[in-house]
Design brief:
Largest sheet: none
Structural class: mainly alpha
Low-confidence stretches: none
Oligomer: single chain
Distance between the termini: 37 Å
Order of helices and strands: HHHHHHHHHHHHH
Number of strands: 0
Number of domains: 1
Shape: globular
Mean pLDDT: 89
Strand content: under 5%
Helix content: over 70%
């Protein structure tokens, strides 16, 4: 299956928005923090939702591709597919916990060893997601909707217990620490909904006749996706307005899901029907997508460069200049090291090595 440029564009856009959001939060001077509240409050949930949604989309595509390789007798078994998937997710969780531990030491707060950064949320979502990959799309949609709604009741109930040492304080810590991050209930639901859309795309994408495939993509995938996206965006605006501007509200999450359904449908239409030649059109976002986890881990030293020093005007110079510099660095890294500099690729390679060691040990013991 060829790489889908539209998916790279959305993932790259989301990771770029996350990085810029962090820089804005770190670099703005205290008296101009209104800019953070005005922009970050709206853009952060959109970026977070898009990243989790497209992660679910990609996860199901990768899983289906491996299952197809089993059917083609390509040396894979279902047990190997499962082990590779789970080992990779566990390795990502280890990286996330190490990242959290470094932050915990840096800010002298041990509670940050367990914190819902994007790496931890995706790792846990992948682990939980395994139990849903072979379930029906309808079931996954229902679970996703239930989690989104239930989260709106659990969150306000547990918030008053933050920092307490009772059972409710523990539940808050497990599910919502820290509250402003990628908390698991809402973002796992988005991950699940992403797998549904990825599943639908897989079904139409495997049609061998190209004319029939394009017809199916246009009328059985893109058109329904666009209509559902418009409905969700409209609901996000209307339901409890102006909750849409507040992170973690149902309005904000539903609006963000709808926004990315619309964006994905538009980009796929452009890509599939060659409205614009996409050979190089998405290259800028491709670098951010390809090195998404690497960038997430590597951008943290930027915290110290202009911490609390830039005003509402100079912050834009800093953000634009940093974006250009990061893009040039990523382009150079891609040309020189390619996949070797990708954390995702290295985790995949390491998972295969670990699986091989496990199989060798089992073979000796049998």
């Amino acid at each position: 299956m060829k790489r889908i440029k539209s998916v790279d564009a959305i993932r790259g856009l989301c990771i770029l928005l996350m990085i810029l959001g962090h820089l804005l939060d770190w670099w703005i001077r205290p008296e101009d923090r209104w800019l953070v509240y005005m922009l970050f409050a709206f853009l952060a949930p959109i970026a977070a939702t898009g990243f989790m949604f497209i992660s679910g989309f990609s996860a199901i595509l990768s899983y289906k591709r491996k299952v197809t390789n089993i059917e083609d007798s390509n040396g894979l078994t279902m047990r190997k597919v499962k082990n590779i998937y789970l080992i990779r997710a566990l390795l990502l969780l280890i990286v996330a916990l190490l990242y959290n531990t470094a932050i915990a030491f840096g800010i002298n707060d041990p509670t940050w060893i367990w914190a819902w950064n994007v790496l931890q949320t995706i790792a846990i979502s992948l682990l939980l997601g395994w139990f849903f990959l072979n379930t029906s799309k309808t079931f996954r949609i229902l679970v996703g909707i239930v989690l989104l709604v239930v989260n709106q009741f659990i969150s306000p109930f547990l918030i008053p217990y933050e920092g307490q040492t009772n059972i409710y304080g523990l539940l808050f810590y497990i599910l919502y620490h820290p509250l402003e991050q990628f908390t698991i209930l809402s973002y796992f639901s988005i991950f699940l909904l992403g797998t549904v859309v990825g599943d639908l795309f897989t079904e139409v994408n495997k049609i061998s006749d190209q004319e029939e495939r394009k017809h199916a993509i246009k009328y059985e995938f893109i058109t329904p996706l666009l209509l559902i996206g418009i409905i969700l965006v409209s609901f996000g605006f209307i339901f409890r307005f102006p909750d849409i501007i507040f992170r973690r509200t149902l309005s904000s999450l539903v609006f963000s899901i709808g926004f990315f359904l619309i964006l994905l449908s538009i980009l796929l239409y452009i890509e599939e029907f060659e409205i614009v030649k996409t050979k190089k059109s998405y290259r800028f976002f491709y670098y951010y997508s390809f090195y998404s986890f690497t960038i997430y881990l590597g951008h943290n030293p930027l915290y110290f460069i202009f911490f609390g020093q830039l005003n509402a005007l100079t912050i834009w110079i800093g953000l634009v200049g940093t974006t250009i510099l990061i893009t040039l660095i990523l382009k150079g890294i891609y040309k020189k090291w390619g996949r070797k500099a990708s954390l995702k690729t290295q985790l995949s390679i390491l998972s295969l090595i670990i699986l091989s060691k496990i199989e060798q040990k089992e073979s000796k013991n049998s």
